[in-house]
User: What shape does this take?
Amino acid sequence: MSSITPISPRGFARVGAHSHIKGLGLDEDLKAKLAADGMVGQTEAREAAGIIVNMIKAGKMAGRAVLLAGPPGTGKTAIAIAIARELGRDVPFITLTGSEIYSSELKKTEVLMQAVRKAIGVRLHETRKVYEGELTQFEVRTAKHAYNPYQQVPESARITLTTKSESRSFNVGSSIVAAMLNQGIRIGDVVQIDAETGKVIRAGRSEEVAEKYEIAGYDEKPVPRPSGPVEKEKEFIYVVTLHDLDQIQSQSRGGFFSLLFGGGEVREIDPEIRRRVDEYVKQRVEDGTAEIIPGVFFLDDVSMLDIEAFSFLSTVLESELAPIVIFATNRGITTVRGTDLQAPHGMPLDLLDRLLIINTRLYTEEEIMEILKIRAREEDVNIMDDALNHLTKIGVETSLRYAVQLLSPAAEKAKSEKRNTVTKDDIEVVRKLFSDVKRSVEYVKQYEEYMLR
Ligand SMILES: Nc1ncnc2c1ncn2[C@@H]1O[C@H](COP(=O)(O)OP(=O)(O)OP(=O)(O)O)[C@@H](O)[C@H]1O
Ligand SMILES: [Mg+2]
Assistant: This one.
């Protein structure tokens, strides 16, 4: 495990329906502002979420779990996303929907285990020998291409790196030259070259040249010419997740096939590999060269999980390396899958016992209107006042989610008639074209007999 490449810990963030959510919208003393960061109303739940964020940041939440419970469309997923935004970039945040654990390729517990390990970050400190300086000479020598004599390819180069105190020249080979040319590195850039691997990193444009010859602030912020010697030990910090480390570890032993197919996404990971990764990380933590960053594992629509998945999660919460788990559900009393027991939120009682529960409540008409306004702005939709009023009524009668979803088809309708503002008629047309869940269920019920035949 000597070479570790930086991998972004961000898996994927679900945007789209929640793209307007920028945070929880709280002030310093954790009081919710009525509307801020794209959030409207739902103040108690947001304030509770704010406390959770602080506990996570203080490292007091690892191994604990939170449940967001409330009716459909009351912002449970939105609040979870807001928590992720508040935590910042380095804290991993992984989202999984209950039904996603039933994949055809992986066992349920493997899907969960991978998600759990993606939700635990490790900050690794690596000291490496590098050559660093402003590039003051860059002479590329070219040679004829081995197979195509008409083409010239870079073969080597003579470069000079300059710091505030010295200048040193080097001959570099074709792979370093190629890496430099690919990144568009030119004289006047500050670069770092890893002494062992030859990896080239461009730090930016040197202030020296930027001030003399270029318009300041033209496209990027210049960086100072480095001080000290050209050859130095430098500390690099990478944030990876336990899952990244599992993958690196299992690829290095993947044998012939992984060589042939370039590894790719590893399917099932051997528990032995995980055990070794854990040991490696613990060792580095003891040596003071790594820190663990417990992240968040958000499990939406938790009533889709079955008893096996729940007992797996209970074990995870008790283990030494555990993320913070946030569940969400819109179910009240329902059957725990895989059993015939009824339980609150369809979760086994032993798990329920250790949860902090946050309830979301139904929105008032004004709040729905406010959220629809924000969504209209987010989706670049102009909407007439009476159309907005009508859409708000629809939101009250059916669900906020449905009303939000009608916005873009309504805008499409307006566009098809060469108008750029949505009218009440547009809303009415798309309301008829697209059914809400209740109407759809009633309709299908009516014809169930026919459909079943
Ligand atoms: N308080 C709020 N402020 C701003 N936007 C919100 C708020 N609550 C919900 N929304 C937005 O309304 C839509 C519906 O909310 P969301 O999907 O979060 O509901 P949910 O409680 O997760 O519903 P379900 O139980 O069906 O999963 C989303 O687009 C969401 O971003
Ligand atoms: Mg949801």
Remarks:
- The chain has 16 helices and 18 strands.
- The two ends are 61 Å apart (CA to CA).
- Confidence is low (pLDDT under 50) at residues 1-15, 254-263.
